[in-house]
């Protein structure tokens, strides 16, 4: 039986492999500008859902930590964030437009499956005007790039605070 005085011993936190932004500041600044440009005209909630879903697929713990916290701070529900990993079975938590964006996010993120299927692209095109769809594709592409920096350099999750920069 445990008592309130017992402490739980968690695994040791890993250190990042490198501080890539420090060693490649111009690339980092360009990524921040690209990220800022990509989100223009997109609904902030949709934008965070896309970032979370791509980060789940890419196993980017740092980005999951960041974008989950940002989504919660922006008023997103815990329930919708939790269900995002099983969205196909939890469709009723999302709008048709959000579902089209989530499906497109998966198709763009998992290009090892071949290519973005026409039906996925067409479904997204039904819910987004062309300019907004272009922004959505940019946002998906940018979070995938961030994920690759985060996973490769093993950026450490758990320390991000909403509104803070990477």
Q: Biggest β-sheet, characterized?
A: none
Q: Can you tell me the overall shape?
A: globular
Question: What is the share of helical residues?
Answer: 55-70%
How many helix segments?
8
Give the uncertain stretches in residue-range form.
none
Describe it for me?
- The protein is mostly helical and 166 residues long.
- The protein contains eight helices and no strands.
- Helix 2 runs antiparallel to helix 8 and helix 6 crosses helix 8 (130-153).
- The chain is globular.
- 27% of the residues are buried.
- The model has no long low-confidence stretch (mean pLDDT 94).
In short:
The protein is built from eight helices and no strands. The chain has helices at residues 20-23, 25-38, 44-58, 61-73, 78-83, 96-109, 118-127, 130-153.
Keyword list:
166 residues
Which secondary structure elements does this structure contain, and how are they paired or packed?
Layout (H helix, E strand, L loop, with lengths): L19 H4 L1 H14 L5 H15 L2 H13 L4 H6 L12 H14 L8 H10 L2 H24 L13
Helix pairs in contact: 2-8, 3-4, 3-6, 3-8, 6-7, 6-8
């Amino acid at each position: 039986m445990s008592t309130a005085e017992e402490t739980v011993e968690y695994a040791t936190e890993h250190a990042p492999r490198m501080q890539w932004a420090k060693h490649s500041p111009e690339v980092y600044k360009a990524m921040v500008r690209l990220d800022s440009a990509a989100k223009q005209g997109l609904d902030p909630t949709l934008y965070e859902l896309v970032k979370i879903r791509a980060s789940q697929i890419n196993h980017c713990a740092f980005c999951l930590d960041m974008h989950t916290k940002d989504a919660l701070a922006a008023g997103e529900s815990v329930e919708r964030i939790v269900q995002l990993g099983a969205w196909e079975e939890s469709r009723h938590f999302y709008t048709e437009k959000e579902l089209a964006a989530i499906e497109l996010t998966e198709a763009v993120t998992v290009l090892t499956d071949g290519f973005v299927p026409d039906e996925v692209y067409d479904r997204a095109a039904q819910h987004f005007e062309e300019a907004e769809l272009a922004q959505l594709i940019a946002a998906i592409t940018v979070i995938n790039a961030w994920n690759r920096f985060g996973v490769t350099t093993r950026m450490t999750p758990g320390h991000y605070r909403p509104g803070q920069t990477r």
